[in-house]
Amino acid sequence: MKSNNIQQNALKKANFKTKIDLLVKFIFAFLALICACVVIFIVIFILVKGIQPFIIPDGSGATQNISDFFLNPNWLYDGTGGMSYMMLATIYVTLLSLIISVPTSIFCGLFIVKVCPKSIKEILKTGVQILASIPSVIFGLFGMGVLKPIVKGFANAVGMQTFGGSSVLTGVLVLAFMTIPTITLVSITSMEAVDINLSKASLALGASNQQTNYKIVLKASQSGIFAGTILGIGRALGEATALQMVIGNGGVGWDFLNVFNIYRTLTTTMLAGIGEATGIKYDIRFSLGIVLIIVIVVTNILLNLLKNYMTRIDKGEPKDKNKIGIIKNIKIYLEAYVHAKKN
Amino acid sequence: MNNENNKDEVVFDVKNVNLFYDNGAKQALKDINMKIYKNKVTAFIGPSGCGKSTLLRCFDRMNELVDNSYRDGIITYNGEDIKDINSIYLRTRVGMVFQQPNPFPMSIKDNIFYGPRCQGVKDKKILNEILDESLKGAALYDEVKDILNKSALGLSGGQQQRLCIARTLAMSPDVILMDEPTSALDPIATLKIEELINELKKKYTIIIVTHNMQQAARISDYTAFFMLGELVEFNKTEEFFSHPQDKRSEDYITGRFG
Amino acid sequence: MKFSKLSKLGALALAFAATACSSVSSEFDTSKAIKLYSRSAGSGTRECFFEGIGYSEVKAEDKWESGVTVSSVESNADIMSNVGGEEYAIGYCSLDSVSSVSTIKALKFEGVEATKENVLNGTYKLKRNFNYVLRNYDDAADASKKQACEGFIDFLTNTTEGQTVISTNGGIISARTDLKSFKDIESKYAIFTSDEQLNIDFCGSTSVETIIKAAVEKLTSLVSNKKLTYTLNQSGSGDAVNGITEGKNGKLFGIGFLSREIKTDEAAKLTDDNARGSFAIDAVVPIVNAKNTSYTETTAEELTKMYKGEYKVWSDVLSK
User: Tell me, what's the ipTM?
Assistant: First the structure.
């Protein structure tokens, strides 16, 4: 009978399909493993090369001085010098740029999602997407050609001098311009994801459009906006080329606190003069690389913890519940384990 | 539709209302004429797509949120054309409860406080008074009085819908519009809300859109039957269900189509 | 988001923009601080400059005095555009680049103007040699490559065409009477007339790029073997010797160029078979902004004091 044939073939095919499923699963796992390995390899490579100057004696039998690496306010480019102030400058420049970029992005996002007429909404969105994919070098050129004269004029107007417009302030502005499209895009996505029914409910209660925008839309999308900010921080912390063109590459110690001074960051220092660097002068940049990686990893962990906390607050759970929850869970697991052991 | 002898006070007067979507391509409402009476429950019934929810949304001008739609004709609220009333102000007097419960992702307290806060009320004493009144008015007070700071999203469906009603009550409106408020709820929650509506009509005017004929028969004082954008029949509920005047109403009531 | 906050921010932004438009005042204010520029550590130009003015502590490291801020830039073009954009700046760059930019002005050094003649006759002291070093190709296996490299250097240093290229591109060479024409040397190098496809990679200093690029163009237009190409991969004098001995990133370079002398540790890697020599002199010129009209000449002592921070504002220097 024909149906018997189908049955037979179905069984064979089913077995074959199961094997294919298993094979594909392994292939995907393997690919994912390779990707992870590349990242780990890069980090380990930098770690190893960066530690070497401090552990392995160089030609004259001395190793680099670790306390000098931490405490020296100057960077000498001959392999000696301290990175602490550069690390602080990196964080400082990023923070300042966030002060400019986050509110601007939120307003841009709100405008595009809620306020602007539907006809130009798509054009604006596409414009922001294009801005987000412009390479950093172009922002650097923009900073050099356009922002430097503006900052110079502004500095002169308030009675300060700059290095032809190169300054921490110019660097902050360039970073702000670079991160605004990124944060705006993510903000737009999270604002659009806010349930339209919530806005309707708010309007039905007699709230104005702007009240609805701020109290409902912004509040509901705040964890999304925060995620966008994390992306922006990542881009700003790691920016080298654009920043190097405008920040001046000079200065020691606490100079970076005055935004009209020139300074340098971890990234620009790693890049400066790399063409002519050999030996220890080249290797010490890897040590800076370690510092940069640590800064980025720690920042990301802290920000993600904060994001999870904010998401939980959004969902309305009280703050201390989570700690108690974890302890309770551990207790339950332990009890279950002990119970299982007994049996 | 014999309203001339009706002694009840008129809240909304709908005259020759047409509503078009898609820049005039589709007509959702055709020449609607009716009155809504004070402190009564008016039910809008009819098969899907007949325009009842659309007309409901006209009363607080929420229809204007849909692009490319246009309404003509006149709707007056207490004698004034609603187009001349500030829409934000109108919505403080005419509240709306939606089909899907949509509490804000905040605490129960903050949900209730939301409307008054938008109007500038800051005094904690006044806010707490409003809180108590609206929760009691929505028959929710006893169930949530100890968990006011918890997220509203943790409540059950029926409780959430009652919270939305309480939220509307916090604004002390004159009219409450309800768009199929119990269609997403289980029978017990539905019963609770129907009891609530019975209580509420003492103080508020209620217009309720419902898919459920029996519900309309149970709770409403007036019934309006719509079909394909037309108001087929509008009468006191008892009259409508016992002596429908239009053949189409009769067919609908007896279940020949739905 | 209160409106008062927003309007304050808006006012600040407007002030920002307004001052930008009102740009620069045309008066040179001598009470303003001197803005010091330098090439970044590792540059051959920098070494030449600081050796020349006698402040060799900083020729390869940023060992500036306390309180001195110096802005480091990456190339000749960068330092010129920066000095051209800042009225109160002082810096230095290669001689051949200066004349083409109107926003900067070259200073006399120790009373001597920076010109080719003064460099060749030895009166202008801020100078350095452009050097080359050849890869030691195996005679048998890489005969064509060896010819291509030796032929290039022969063209560059011994023919009228080659010497013209150098001088038109800013290199300083002494006038010679013993130059041959290209035709004379062409027959010595079979690769110039054959049909073999070959590419030679150059490496080393960026300062020589202008001259060498022009020389490559000239030579490839003269030879009949149109499949012979030379590619520049300039990344700094530090890469020259390594490039022709060990190679970089898997590439083996034929000729390495330097804008300074070969160091002892680099020389240790070379043998007598690595031909090397100097093909031009480059001079380093102190530059200031064109608007700095009263400052026309400088001395090693003045420059040192400026870079040491002993002169802080322009009036310190100009009043001498």
Answer: 0.90
